[in-house]
Every structure is written in structure tokens, then in C-alpha cells.
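Appendix B, record 7
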Amino acid sequence: MPTTNPGGGQATLEEVVVTARKVTEDLQEAPASIVAVSGSQLQAAGVVDVQGLEKFVPSANLRSEGPVVETFIRGVGSNIDSANVDEAVSYNYNGIVLSRFATAGLLFDVANVQVIAGPQGTLYGGTAAGGAINVTSARPKDDAAGAITLEGGNYARAHFSGFQDIPVSDMLSVRGAIDYDRRDGYETYGFDAQDSIRGRLSALITPNDSASVLVFASGSYDDGKPAVAINNPLYDSSNPWKVAPAGPTYANPVDPNYVQRTIETYVFGANADIAMGDNHFTYIPGFVHNIIGYQTYIGYFPHPVKESEAQVSQELRWNRRFDALALSAGVFYLHDSVGMYGGFGAPILPKPPYIAVTPSGQLRQDETSYAVFGQGVYSVTDKLRLT
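C-alpha cells (predicted):
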């Protein structure tokens, strides 16, 4: 679509191709509110986690709550962080749906992030009342390209990231990517510290122009110390990051050895695409395993969260366009097994052994889901479409 620029010439509006509605389409013509951000844009803005997406998605509010990120789009979201309560915004990584505890370590070596607002239950299921966030990793290329980025800063910040493409043959390319990020804590005793390492290995197989298979394995490990809730009024009015040496009574001092965080997330999956005439088929198998060990203080009372979750999912999708009519249909399967413990407790002793924490929730849950979905979009005119 040509537009006139201030210099008097004509500039062509760049076409942005998106897949947030599980079809390939021009962003300008998609009948939905979609924000697409490239990996280079994220890197230039210094975005290293999903909370940083607020810089690009004005309708989204993302806030850290312990080991999870509470996500709201257009005010629709969920602040109940239990593993047995469905999210209201769906996270998807290379087409694989993720649980609320598995969103750490996603934004490195990214091709693009696409955020679609509004209820998306038809295409994304019951966890997408507010919308969906889709993260797509960079695919292997056949040009043997590679890059390394180094950063440093105060609080002993050190950030290293890099990738390397390896063309193995005409049909096979491999890509390896790694990201390491650490800094000291902002709060007293080293609380609110970052120490994470993330890696991915992917292979792209292209036997012909009509078929491709992407296989990938991604892992993330974070053992930095979490933040501790700061009570008001501040313990030290001149230092809002200073944690008091004791809680409501001096019988329960804050113990730096108690505060710890280990977040492990592993994702294995594939994207298989094949075109047969006017029919396009996509198959996405996935396995997600996350292990959370998280202990901090809320109001100077200990708050532990222990969680282990294993998820297997499969999606088979069909797309076809008949002139003015575009059809999508598919089947979906998911099995999720989760064990979780979380609670608040009485004040702990200054030294081990600690007083046992009174559990507010112990959970063991296995869930199996099946779904069939379909959607059609008919273009009545160039500017009017019916879904």
C-alpha cells in the first residue's frame, strides 16, 4: 500500500506477516488486534524476559509474583497463581502451550513475539480469555552465520549471548544458542539477584519446497535469590531496598539462607509443515517439564513454593483457502501432571532446624484434555470480513 512521505516521494508500507491466528496473513488485513515484535526490536530495547513486553504491548500488564508472571491483556487475566487454576492469557512457545510456571527463560534468540488481544478460545482453548502470547524462536539457516553479544553493568551485571548456524547439508541446518545473565541483588543480603543460563539446540529439515520439520530442545536454569517483600513504613526511609533484620518480633529474623530460588524449565518439540496442493497441514508435538523451588518472605513470614510439572501435548491442524474463504480446523490433546506445595507459616527460628511451615495448599493433579476446533473467515469485500 503506497503512502506519501515528507520528502515528496512514495514509500511502500512494509508487509508484516503474522501467524497469531494460526494462519499466515498480512498484519494489516488480519481481523484481530495483533502486536508483532521482532527479535531485533526486543534486543535493541533490552528486553530479556516476558515482563519487558509491556514496552511494546500497551494493552498488557505483566507483573512478577514469585516464580510466575501474572499477565493481563485489556484488564483480563488471573492473579491466582496455583497450578490447578487455569490462566486467562495463553503462552505458546513454537506453538506449544505452556503452563504459568514454565514461562521463564523464553526470550532469547527469538525470531518474533506476537500478542493477540481479546478472547481466543476457538484457537487457543480455555486459557485464552484475555488473549495469547506467541513466542517463536529463531530458526536454523544455511548461511553459517553466528554472533556473540557481551554486556556489563553495575551490581556486577554480566550478560553473554550467542548463536551459531551450521549448514550440515542441502536438507539439514542446525542452530545452537546460549544466553547467560547474572547480577548481584538490589536488596539487603543479596536478595533480588539474577543468575540464569539458557540454551537451545534446533535442527531444520527441508526435504523439498513443500515440507519442513523443525525439531528443538530448550532448557533454562535460574538459581538467583528472589526478592523479599518490603513492609511499609520502610525500615530505612533513605533506602527503599533495605530489608529489616527482623520481622514483627525479633524472634523471627529474616534468614538469608532461607531465601532461595531454583527454576528449571525444559521444552522439547517439533513443528512439521507439509503442503499438499491447496491444503496445508501442521503437526506440533511437545513435552514441557518444569521444576520450581522457591522460598522467600512475605510480610517477613516464610513463603515456600515447590512445584513439579510434566506436560505432553499434540496438535494437528489443517488450513485451506478457497478464493474469498479461508478455513482452519484441527484436533488437540494435552496431558498434564502436576505436584505442588505452597504455604505461609509461623515465624521460623533464627537457625536450623526451622519450625515446620503450615501448608496452605498441597496439590497433586492429573488432567487430560481433548479438543476439536474450526474457524472460517469469509472476505465479503476488501474491507469487510466475516469470521
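Remarks on this record: The two ends are 24 Å apart (CA to CA). The chain is about 5% helix and 55% strand.
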